[in-house]
Amino acid sequence: MKKSSAKTTSRSAAPTVTALAPGTLAPKTLAIDIGGTGIKALTLDAVGKPVNDRTRIATPKHARPKQVIAIVRKLAKAQPGFDRVSVGFPGVVKAGMIYTAANLGKGWTGFDLGGGVEQKLKKPVRVANDADIQGLGCATGHGLELVITLGTGFGSVLFAEGTRVHLELGHHPFHRGKTYEDELGERALKKIGRKRWNKLLQEAVAELQKTFNYDRLYIGGGNSRLVNFKLPANVKIISNEDGLLGGIALWRDAVSHAGETAAKSIATPAPAPIKSPAVKAPSKAAPRVVAKPVPSASPKPSPGASRVPSPRPAVKPKPARIANKPALVVAKPAPIAANVAAPPAVAESAPSAAASSSTPPPMSSAQPAGAPIK
After folding, report:
1. pLDDT higher for 256 or 35?
2. Which helix (H) or strand (E) holds 149?
3. Could you read off the pLDDT of 59-118 as tens digits, one per residue?
4. 175-189: pLDDT as tens digits
């Protein structure tokens, strides 16, 4: 497990380091096709044109990972220089990891084939199902396109408007409880002969049309050359070369994503120092420092100014109103004094009473005030 994790790390790092350097020029791709009976190799230029003749080595019976990688390494040494590798494998593949290998030996489940090949060849590697790669070499990217491969097993892949969806139709029930691979694989061909095999294949084509309602069907694989019945207009036989030429399309698809990831990883460090907290801190602190004196200076005069005018309206009206009130109170006794002065005038009209009294004037003035009251 430790070895596989190390291989996975090296494989994931390679596209952003090894592959991008020649990517801007014209990288050459080594296309490897691993089959149940043979392992093929071919080097392609940047546009997918073969640089050399295809080479092939027979696949060992019940081949294990070490055996296959050794053959791939031997084939690679015989090839001209290349910058990257694409590998087609007869089984379920996800991110370079092998999940199934029905037509090979033991030890494949969970094996990191991409990492293993990359470790030996020291080049970035992309791995996909062999039928998927063959489909990449022929699919137009329009409508619903189904690809099946007839070889040791029965491969399949579906393209919906160019989007690749891997299928495992080979293990799906097809005829009398048997699967597509049981009836159309290499063993069935040898057992029932070409005539019966072609008849079953013709039935399979019609069945797949009903199942997927495809716009186009492509039939590839080593045994596609044995097809001898008339095909519908939307069914086409493709060559084995498409299985290798599709390797360039697999890599272009991977480069587009890897290029975007690398571009982001390259672009991220550039703005990182600008957006780092160390640089942001002064820019944020500057406005805070400037903003603090402004509010601190403004509140100082504002409370002082508010205190000066506030007493003026509060004190001025109150004393004015209080001063007016006593003036009204003082004004009221004035008519009372006038009323008191009136009785003496009446008292003067009686000289006998005034002359007979011997009391001083202040007292007499007080008495007459009570006289008229009685």
Report:
1. 35
2. strand 144-150
3. 999 999 999 999 999 999 998 889 999 999 999 999 889 999 988 999 999 999 999 999
4. 888 999 999 999 999
Whether the CB-CB separation of 365 and 344 falls below 8 Å is answered with yes
pLDDT of residue 154: 94
pLDDT of residue 63: 94
**Integer Cα distance of 134 and 220 in angstroms:** 8
User: Which CATH number is 77's domain given?
Assistant: 3.30.420.40
Query: What is the CB neighbour count within 10 angstroms for residue 2?
Result: 6
C-alpha to C-alpha distances, 94 to 100, 122, 298, 359, nearest whole angstrom: 10, 21, 67, 139
Which residue in this structure is represented by tokens 């057992």? Answer: 191
Task: Taking the CA atoms of 176, 178, 184 and 189 in sequence, report the sign of the dihedral they define.
Answer: negative
Q: How far apart are the first and last CA of the chain?
A: 134
Which of 180, 204, 237 finishes a domain?
Answer: 237
**Is the Cβ–Cβ distance between 141 and 110 less than 8 Å?**
no
Q: How many degrees, rounded to 5, is the angle at CA 137 between CA 93 and CA 19?
A: 65
Domain assignment of residue 82, yes or no = yes
Q: Give the domain range for residue 99.
A: 1-137+240-258
pLDDT in tens, 139-176: 999 999 999 999 989 999 999 999 999 999 999 999 88
Q: Which of 161, 66, 79 is nearest to 119 (CA)?
A: 66
Is there a domain that residue 33 lies in? yes
Mean pLDDT of the chain: 73
Q: Are 248 and 32 in contact (CB under 8 A)?
A: no
Instruction: Report, as an integer, the average pLDDT of 321-333.
Output: 45
Same domain, yes or no: 228 and 151: yes
